[in-house]
Amino acid sequence: MIIETPSRLHMTLIDLNGTIGRVDGGVGLTIKKPKLVLEAKYQDEGIDIFFKESHKLNEKIMADYGRKIENTVKKITDFLKIDSGFKFEVKTAYPTHSGLGSGTQLSLAVAKLILNLNDRDMDAWQIAKIVGRGGTSGIGVRAFDHGGFIIDGGHKVDEKPDFLPSSASNARPAPLIARYDFPKDWKVVLAIPNVPAGASGQNEVNIFQGYCPIKLDEVQKLSHLILMKMMPSLVEEDLDSFGSAVNEIQNTGFKKIEVGFQDSVINEIAQNLRNAGAAGVGMSSFGPTIYAVTDTNTKDISKVAQSTMNEIGGKVIVTEAKNSGATLKKEF
């Protein structure tokens, strides 16, 4: 059995103040590329992991995938009370800690495959509770199930009293409060520079603990931007207004903190893509991936992205929204 999952852009966390009684909340977009393609088969015992494109992947990425697969297998097989062995082949992978949500997609994919092989079915929200994903942002979990443009409602403060990233949170995945199809004519250009990976692990925990709570007026400004500019412009397919909201978000709330920790080239890429005509440019999660939303000028924007990364190297991907979630199939 084979599963193909999308990736996701995490545009912003909404409320890291918490005085209203909830924390977190997130805004994000499901995208077609890069994607994860994973195959699983039964075997008598043990866990074997192979990479179809091992010649293209560095050892660190393969080791990270291996750890996540093994950890998820243990959690889901303990839940199912089975002791079967499994063989996995990672047919297509994308980088970890790049701001594209590979960890959640991989964990959900592994669990979904094992459930399917055992004639069981669960939605992503149920799976995420078992494998421990979505404890801060619910965007990746909902992208796996539904795709599209997603807003989640965060967590009650009595369930999650501390400001923590998903990797350190035991909270349940956040509820979905809005989901829209993203306009088919809008394109997304990704620039992934060869700079240190975005914050993760204890470093990410320290940032959350050191910079939260965010000032209430910043949270209110961000909420206003999302509710009265970003969402209506999406529904009305007003690209310029949507892009303007994306640009404003980069200097608001916790996103401003995330952007502030980046290499100077990140801001240079973002500004150059705006100058090249992108309607909106933002950083996904803790980076380093930069995304540009546009409609007709993807070639120009891609060239500018690549030229800005000439000295440090990097990858440019032209993609679009995926308005559906992960898919299971018998053959690749």
TrEMBL record:
<dbReference type="Pfam" id="PF08544">
    <property type="entry name" value="GHMP_kinases_C"/>
</dbReference>
<keyword id="KW-0808">Transferase</keyword>
<dbReference type="InterPro" id="IPR020568">
    <property type="entry name" value="Ribosomal_Su5_D2-typ_SF"/>
</dbReference>
<keyword id="KW-0328">Glycosyltransferase</keyword>
<protein>
    <recommendedName>
        <fullName>Beta-ribofuranosylaminobenzene 5'-phosphate synthase</fullName>
        <ecNumber>2.4.2.54</ecNumber>
    </recommendedName>
</protein>
<dbReference type="Pfam" id="PF00288">
    <property type="entry name" value="GHMP_kinases_N"/>
</dbReference>
<dbReference type="InterPro" id="IPR004422">
    <property type="entry name" value="RFAP_synthase"/>
</dbReference>
<dbReference type="InterPro" id="IPR036554">
    <property type="entry name" value="GHMP_kinase_C_sf"/>
</dbReference>
<comment type="function">
    <text>Catalyzes the condensation of 4-aminobenzoate (pABA) with 5-phospho-alpha-D-ribose 1-diphosphate (PRPP) to produce beta-ribofuranosylaminobenzene 5'-phosphate (beta-RFA-P).</text>
</comment>
<comment type="similarity">
    <text>Belongs to the beta-RFA-P synthase family.</text>
</comment>
<dbReference type="GO" id="GO:0008652">
    <property type="term" value="P:amino acid biosynthetic process"/>
</dbReference>
<keyword id="KW-0067">ATP-binding</keyword>
<dbReference type="InterPro" id="IPR013750">
    <property type="entry name" value="GHMP_kinase_C_dom"/>
</dbReference>
<comment type="pathway">
    <text>Cofactor biosynthesis; 5,6,7,8-tetrahydromethanopterin biosynthesis.</text>
</comment>
<dbReference type="GO" id="GO:0005524">
    <property type="term" value="F:ATP binding"/>
</dbReference>
<feature type="domain" description="GHMP kinase C-terminal">
    <location>
        <begin position="230"/>
        <end position="297"/>
    </location>
</feature>
<dbReference type="InterPro" id="IPR053442">
    <property type="entry name" value="Beta-RFA-P_synthase"/>
</dbReference>
<dbReference type="GO" id="GO:0043793">
    <property type="term" value="F:beta-ribofuranosylaminobenzene 5'-phosphate synthase activity"/>
</dbReference>
<keyword id="KW-0028">Amino-acid biosynthesis</keyword>
<feature type="domain" description="GHMP kinase N-terminal">
    <location>
        <begin position="71"/>
        <end position="144"/>
    </location>
</feature>
<keyword id="KW-0547">Nucleotide-binding</keyword>
<comment type="subunit">
    <text>Homodimer.</text>
</comment>
<dbReference type="InterPro" id="IPR006204">
    <property type="entry name" value="GHMP_kinase_N_dom"/>
</dbReference>
